[in-house]
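Handoff note, outgoing to incoming analyst
You'll be picking up this chain. Sequence as last confirmed:
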Amino acid sequence: MATKLPKVDVVVVGVGWGGGIIASELTKAGLSVVGLERGKERKTEDYYMVHDELRYALRYEMFQDLSKETITFRGNEKIRALPMRSYGSFLIGDGLGGAGVHWNGQTFRFLPYDFEIKTKTIERYGKKKIPEGMTIQDWGITYDELEPYFLKFEKMAGISGEVNPLGGKRSEKYPTPPMKVTPVMKMFSDACKNLKYHPYIMPSANLSEPYTNPDGIDRAACQYCGYCERFGCEYGAKADPVVTVIPVAMKTGKFEIRTHSNVRRVLYKGNKATGVLYTDITTGEEYEQPADIVVLTSYVFNNSRLLLMSKIGRPYDPSTGHGVIGKNYAYQVEAAAGVGFFENKEFNLYAGAGALAMTMDDFNGDNFDHKDLKFIHGGSITFGQSGNRPIQNNTVPPNTPSWGKDFKAASVKYFNRNISVWAEGSCMPYRHHFLDLDPTYKDAYGDPLMRITFDFEERDREMVKFLGAKCGEVLKEMGADQVVAYTEQGPYEITHYQSTHNTGGVIMGSSPETSAVNSYLQMWDMENLFVVGASAFSHNSGYNPTGTLGALAYRAAEGIVKYSKSGGSLV
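Most recent structure output, in case you need it:
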């Protein structure tokens, strides 16, 4: 029998970027908030002098314990899904701050095209441009409507950036100047300009200078140590929820964090959520936390899983295309890349930062003509200097023996004589790509695991061929003596890392027939239940998702405050 706790105004499930932003904004507005986080407590002091590549990057110190909960995966519905038992394609965060602690800090705004992708594609190319089975749809909000919330996230995080010449219009510049330009970044920029492209310095959550945000949070500048991805920042220079929004919520006295609290069900009566049921993983005890408003702010998979296990919303059925929970799962297409080898130039790529990079969007979104191409959208093309680490980096030219004297000679020669240019490719949803509950495999508590059904499509292979060639073109212009362009996309492979950019499953839109939440991320079927995160994306763009996730979280917070006063649907 679960112990019933005193009621609060709001219960938040998962305290990462989404949960931290919601807690900060709601407590400032006077609401009492409980944040339930199934991982452990974290603070900046945990990372003092901990540049341990083996512990964090290779032994996954900061990630979910797959022996207790994982996902299952299959490439199509005809084969049996099997559990992911070791980390590969993506990394599922765990603990206070979630993925916002171990991210690189690359902070983009999705393009105006993204938010109205179906309408704009048809307007320019006609309905036949969208292949059968592709389920793109407009998001129910425009870039212009979301722009103030992008700006609010950027000011909170202190994003250091240069205006994207091909991006959406900005009402203000970035709050801090862009990161330093390294010699190789300048090479990339010069090459792009020679090719008549439009490079710019990547927007970064690694601070370029000391910064005090509008909430009065002071943070130091980045030291360019190169330990961002898979690591917490010992300086607090990398924006993460633990050093930005969570302290603001705690200072109000209206926010309580309960770590080691695994939420297993959303409780409801009729069409109103009444709270959540969770297990204290240290004792095994169950608790019921009543609340006037419930906000799911956990990772993509868990947002969908909680709704499906709680029997809230209409589960997606790929055979009919009906239903919404689990619909439009999308990943990120990362295979397009190029590597350049230099005979007489050496580079120091071991100093860096997670978002120290030069990028361009000439082939992202609909910034170029797709009339004669067999795909829509595209991707950003980037040279990034995130800081090579010794264990994971040993790039040699193709056809180099994998061991022995020649392998050693090539390793020594090209250790500082190779650079990579890559494309962050968009991913479009298809009718047969979805999330549901696995009928066989369960977690440590006896609940079904989340099952992914996904594979790359012909559209992805065509896009990789195109973007890979562009990466090679830039490397040649940079002066590489040997260029290897990766232009072939095989089947999706879950065993090697690509990105942690999973999206969809609880998508937003303008109609309950085709979406699960409205533009405030309020459930159509349950007005006091909000679902915040990249689960709301109806496709994935050619960018990292965090900037757009943050903007949507700020809009959702505004909607929740409004709902707390007047109730009802917000749209």
